[in-house]
Amino acid sequence: xxxxxxxxxxxxxxxxxxxxxxxxxxxxxxxxxxxxxxxxxxxxxxxxxxxxxxxxxxxxxxxxxxxxxxxxxxxxxxxxxxxxxxxxxxxxxxxxxxxxxxxxxxxxxxxxxxxxxxxxxxxxxxxxxxxxxxxxxxxxxxxxxxxxxxxxxxxxxxxxxxxxxxxxxxxxxxxxxxxxxxxxxxxxxxxxxxxxxxxxxxxxxxxxxxxxxxxxxxxxxxxxxxxxxxxxxxxxxxxxxxxxxxxxxxxxxxxxxxxxxxxxxxxxxxxxxxxxxxxxxxxxxxxxxxxxxxxxxxxxxxxxxxxxxxxxxxxxxxxxxxxxxxxxxxxxxxxxxxxxxxxxxxxxxxxxxxxxxxxxxxxxxxxxxxxxxxxxxxxxxxxxxxxxxxxxxxxxxxxxxxxxxxxxxxxxxxxxxxxxxxxxxxxxxxxxxxxxx
Length: 437
Hints:
Elements: E1 4-7, H1 9-19, H2 26-41, E2 44-47, H3 60-63, E3 67-69, H4 72-75, H5 77-95, H6 98-104, H7 108-124, H8 128-135, H9 144-153, H10 163-182, E4 192-193, H11 199-208, H12 219-239, H13 243-246, H14 261-273, H15 275-293, H16 296-320, H17 332-335, H18 345-349, H19 357-367, H20 380-395, H21 397-404, H22 412-420, H23 426-436
Parallel strand pairs: 1-2, 1-4, 2-3
């Protein structure tokens, strides 16, 4: 069981460009942090199909199997035709909304020019083989690093084309990504993480069309990041760093040990390869599978496990920041003879509420070799609660490892100065905060 997400080609190009000496600004940093988040929390990163670019030997993340390009043949051209048609119809519905047009900067004149182009594309999409090259034209509404890459691809769309043509291409490619994410065959149908220049549009669309929302594999990572940021803000007066510096994505700790741009990817892959990270991805895969394909009972259990994980996470962060005393979960291996690793959560579920602590101990002893019954102390409720917390904490231990590396008063620019030798301006910092909001 593996976790997968769909990312824009432009997100990968933006990250790659930044690592190779490209421009550091709010957009490129946002794309880099989102890419690294996916790298450590998801098994496979899929990029959208295109006829204008394919990975080569230079794209090592593809050659080692971390990233994978979806190709048209896997989807099937009949499915592609349906995806193209749905995407164009969705784009037409979107720009009929005044709020969407305002967000995208489409005035009435440009709106009138976009409509016939989209209607023409809808007719062309009936022949998906011919239309695929048209769809693959680059999107120039992007960040500087991705823009430099797409300029070199020599793809169909002229960078000097009229604004309405660029907007149509932006709408087409974004909506195709969303339709790919909503599909349900073996090669697509997964959460979509958009590029910085598409995020506002995608988030707004998900709010309007709630049926598209899927469980996101970085949900718990975001909870951790927000929890750490909140606790750092509480301490900001004592440690003397600003609220904007306290507000940083937790995954930026992946950069904390990097002395240069080249070291960032190495550090991220090291984090990805930790046993804790692999166990966390397995837990996330179980949650995703239950939410996506499970029956009602499986979904209810997944919802319970997710809520339990969030509760344990917040308690552990409180302990890390000195706001809560240790609850004894850490001494469980000693309490039950060191065999807690062998006890499954099923053993806890099997407990009868009327059982005595001694009977609970006996049942657990049958589940784990070498458990010393006499060493199990406390009531059944205490044992069960601590065991549940222990199992959950093992699964989210990777997030707590990141939290411990946070560095507290090391803000965004502190990390950027070390890795990039430069920092974000106040204006770019505010923009980066807004993107992460």
